[in-house]
UniProtKB/TrEMBL annotation:
SMART domains: Pribosyltran_N. Its EC number is 2.7.6.1. The keyword Signal does not apply. This is ribose-phosphate diphosphokinase. Keywords: ATP-binding, Kinase, Magnesium, Metal-binding, Nucleotide biosynthesis, Nucleotide-binding, Transferase. Residues 1-20 are annotated as: Disordered. HAMAP family: RibP_PPkinase_B. The lineage of its organism: Eukaryota, Viridiplantae, Streptophyta, Embryophyta, Tracheophyta.
Length: 403
């Protein structure tokens, strides 16, 4: 395992009133996406309640992953995690990682001051999944970190087998930590004879033995109602908002854009956190799955910096056609912000075509080396999820994190 170097604390400076503000006051250090070695950073004034941020340069052409640190936490993420994580030997909290996103799992464990649990996961020759816990979980609160990202069926089945292994090992409580919940787009019937796969997957996770689910930025809020067990919904907007606040963009030049009508509520909440920035909506008509046609723009973007907000980028057809329309309508710059970087082909070609000033995503889904491009910035949600896990474990409020 690569060595982790803790960053130094940040210094304060006075921010300019001409830049927009995020409601979450966080300062940040940066880690490279493939290692845990702190990169050389350069200071940049951040209009975030007078805090000076440390943003690192890209390493080998790859974007660095900003991640929070103990000495730099503001009231947004204050908790008793340090005193709770002192006695690691006797803790009844255990975290296990699946094979879908081990890097994120390791970052979460580091934030919480814990070590990942020992687990053996392998595939038989015919593709069957074998899971064996290498340590006792009897009477423990177990958290299984496993996004159901591509290959979705493989990772989903692995999560179910992990849950079953913990249940049969007499774990007290089992929480499925799903940074990216696959099948969430199939949440309703829009045509005859369609399945509602989101409900089916929720039933599978519940019947496998999970007592609670922790998920990030679900495609639609009603997906929480498909589970017959408690669901904690983690909103990753604060991480993206904090990064945007480090940009020296004049508030009067900013407009938040929803790439479709279905994402208006998400974009409106995002705009509200940016000092009630104006909102624009791209009206499109979809003729098939992963095929979108932009029709019209509602709102004014001429001469402005447009920030397009969506929950995921799959093939990038919707967001790139929307960006092209924004440029036609006179937008000066276009930023794309999304929590889940699914990046199915030909997403990389579309996103790196020059339409976007920057593409900002999080690491809920691991990004392969071949999918990095100069405009891509990857932000880490590890500390946000680690704090949520601590609060669930301590029976504390989770919603207060996002207020």
């Amino acid at each position: 395992m690569a060595a982790l170097v803790l960053p130094s604390t940040t210094s304060c400076s006075t921010s300019s009133s001409s830049t927009f503000r995020s409601s979450s006051a966080i300062s940040r250090c940066s880690l490279s996406p493939r290692s845990f070695v702190l990169t050389e950073s350069r200071p940049r004034t951040c209009p975030l309640n007078g805090v000076r941020c440390e943003l690192s340069e890209s390493l080998n052409g790859k974007p660095c992953v900003p991640i929070l640190n103990d000495g730099m936490l503001s009231k947004f993420l204050q908790s008793r995690r340090l005193e709770n994580s002192v006695n690691k030997v006797n803790t009844r909290l255990k975290i296990f990682s699946g094979t879908a996103n081990p890097t994120l799992s390791q970052e979460i464990a580091w934030y919480m001051g814990l070590n990942l649990g020992e687990i053996n996961i392998k595939r038989f020759a015919d593709g069957e999944i074998y899971v064996q816990l290498q340590e006792s979980v009897r009477g423990c609160d177990v958290y299984l970190v496993q996004p159901t990202c591509p290959p979705a069926n493989e990772n989903l089945m692995e999560l179910l087998v992990m849950i079953d292994a913990c249940r049969r090992a007499s774990a007290k409580n089992i929480t499925a930590v799903i940074p990216y919940f696959g099948y969430a787009r199939a949440d309703r019937k829009t045509q005859g004879r369609e399945s509602i796969a989101a409900k089916l997957v929720a039933n599978l996770i519940t019947e496998a033995g999970a007592d609670r689910v922790l998920a990030c930025d679900l495609h639609s809020g009603q997906s929480m109602g498909y589970f017959d067990i408690p669901v904690d919904h983690v909103y990753c907007q604060p991480v993206i908002l904090d990064y945007l606040a480090s940009k020296t963009i004049c508030f009067n030049d900013l407009v938040v854009v929803s790439p479709d009508v279905g994402g208006v509520a998400r974009a409106r909440a995002f705009a509200k956190k940016l000092s009630d920035a104006p909102l624009a909506i791209v009206d499109k008509r979809r003729h098939g799955h992963n095929v979108a046609e932009v029709m019209n723009l509602i709102g004014d973007v001429k001469g402005k910096v447009a920030v397009m907000v969506d929950d995921m980028i799959d093939t990038a057809g919707t967001i790139t056609k929307g960006a092209a329309l924004l440029h036609e309508e006179g937008a000066r710059e276009v930023y794309a912000c999304s929590t889940h970087a699914v990046f199915s082909p030909p997403a990389i070609e579309r996103l790196s075509s020059g339409l976007f000033q920057e593409v900002i995503v999080t690491n809920t889904i691991p990004i392969m080396d071949k999918n990095y491009f100069p405009q891509l910035t990857v932000l880490s949600v590890a500390n946000l999820m680690g704090e949520t896990i601590w609060r669930v474990h301590d029976d504390c409020s989770v919603s207060s994190i996002f207020q």
